[in-house]
Amino acid sequence: MTVLKVVLDRVLTWICVVLFAALVLDVGWQVFARQVLNAPSGWSEELAKYLFIWVGLLGGALVFGERGHVAADLAVQRAPERVQRVTAVTVQISILAFAVLALIWGGYRVVHLTWNQTLTGLPVNVGWMYLALPISGVITVLYTVYHMIHISTGEEIAIDPDAEAPLA
Asked: Superkingdom, according to UniProt (predicted)?
């Protein structure tokens, strides 16, 4: 499973880099067309929305996979290691429930509802934008299961002591 995570991290990193580079180029073109050419580009604004949503959701899943997300764990840092481990697994279960219910199931429903809606600025339908929800949900579920297993077995520490020093 560690090999799968490493491959997923690398692929997701490159996808986010490519999407972000495309977003920068798109917004750069949008500003150039509006300010220099005096001819605003209608399609670039729509594309920027799509790229921003995809980068945000896939980037969020990647940060979650690296456990780089914000965590309010001041009280848990002072607890015994067993309490830290139980708390960490409970948090992972909560994240798993959110990812399954909101991202995957809710995302699937939104994609289904918007799949036939079209845009005027781009030759794609609205469903492609919302497809980022269930995809990022599946990735988040994979990372959650990975972290749950590794925290439960002691291969991964429950609370990162270097993340922020506890108050004295």
From this structure: Bacteria
Q: How far is 66 from 140, CA to CA, in rounded Å?
A: 11
Cα 33 from Cα 15, distance rounded (Å): 27
Element (H, E) at 163: none
Phi and psi, residue 118, nearest 5°: -110, 160
Average pLDDT in the 59-69 region?
87
- φ, ψ (nearest 5 deg) of residue 140: -65, -40
Residues whose CB is less than 8 angstroms from the CB of residue 34 and which lie 6 or more positions away in sequence, other chains included? 40, 41
Q: How far apart are CA 10 and CA 128, in angstroms?
A: 23
Lookup: tokens for 73: 């764990």
In whole angstroms, what is the distance from residue 144 CA to residue 91 CA?
A: 10
Q: How many CA within 13 A on the CB side of residue 143?
A: 25
Q: Give the residue carrying structure tokens 């917004």.
A: 27
Query: How many angstroms separate the Cα of 34 from the Cα of each of 31, 42, 123?
Result: 5, 10, 21
